[in-house]
Amino acid sequence: MSFLSSISGHLGRFVKERFNPQGRGAILYFHRILERNDAFYPDDINSNDFANLLAALKPNFEFVPLSEITLPTSSGKPPLGIAFDDGYKDNLLALPVLESFNAPATIFVATAGVHEGILWQDRIVETLKIASSEHLLNSPFSYQGKRRQRVAITQQLMADWKRLPVEERDSEISSLMRRWEIAEEDLPSLMLNERDILTLSRHPLISLGAHTHDHAILTTVSDSEAKKQIQKSHEILTSITGVAPSLFCYPNGKPGVDFTDEHAEMVRSLGFHFAYTTADGGVDRDVDAMKIPRFLPFRKQALLRALSTIKIAGEIA
Predict the structure, then answer these.
(1) pLDDT band at residue 317 using 50, 70 and 90 as cut-offs
(2) Helices 3-19 & 302-313 angle (0-180, nearest 10)
(3) How far apart are CA 193 and CA 313, in angstroms?
(4) Model confidence over 141-170: pLDDT tens digits?
(5) SS3 label, residue 200
(6) Separation CA 114–CA 92 (nearest Å)
(7) What's the predicted TM-score (pTM) here?
(8) Alpha helix (H) ranges present in the chain?
(9) What does the alpha-carbon distance between residue 85 and residue 91 come to, in Å, rounded to a whole number?
(10) With contact defined as beta carbons under 8 Å apart, do 312 and 281 qualify?
């Protein structure tokens, strides 16, 4: 056993007794798994940090598929599920790590990215990465040539535009790209393609779930558009893999803010068995199957993140 696993096990038992004596389970969610850290993606970790995190979690949890998160584990440890949102191609970097820990994971795919190669938020990121200094200096944004200022503008635009209706959001992004003379072909392809998804669907540790088509926050669109977004992602994944997805997660995912009880009922009516939020808290057998909480501690160091996971698992979402 590594030193990290050993110290995590000793400290984890103390934290569990203090904050999670009932042994509630947890689901951690990620987005990208990077080759190296990137300031434009501050909440995403690299594959080495991901491996260290799983090593710190393993003494305290049993890794399980998301569909089994409410069931007792064979080891008696609290269950822990792993999810990746949006469907990034670099999630493939996580596979060797997951295999080394025999850890199942679910990838929730926003299916527009499958055919377009990029989602709206990354159009903003990649536009700010390659925009000329001249265009930025002549823009209304606060920019004096520093990389950190590009990052700040990126975060501002994503926050400002994420709650716009899909067509208005996409129009704003397209207009920005035109003004700064950036074409679609200038942007990288970041998302899993159909071949990747088919391959992953056959991997024994991987399950696939739906995440709407355009990564639309459901409360920003009409009920008919929300149902279309959910149904289209279901249909595309079924078409690619030959298997209807039974898992769904809500974009942005805050209950009562990003989706309502009516949206949860839409998800249920379209044949999904479980749906997942981003409400901090643990999971037990009494959880609403259409509102299962998931979280990601903001601690960056693996041991502290693992201990935070134990603590937050003991909380009610």
Answers:
(1) confident
(2) 20
(3) 34
(4) 988 889 999 999 999 999 999 999 999 999
(5) helix
(6) 15
(7) 0.95
(8) 3-19, 47-57, 95-101, 112-116, 120-130, 133-137, 147-161, 166-179, 194-201, 223-241, 261-269, 302-313
(9) 9
(10) yes
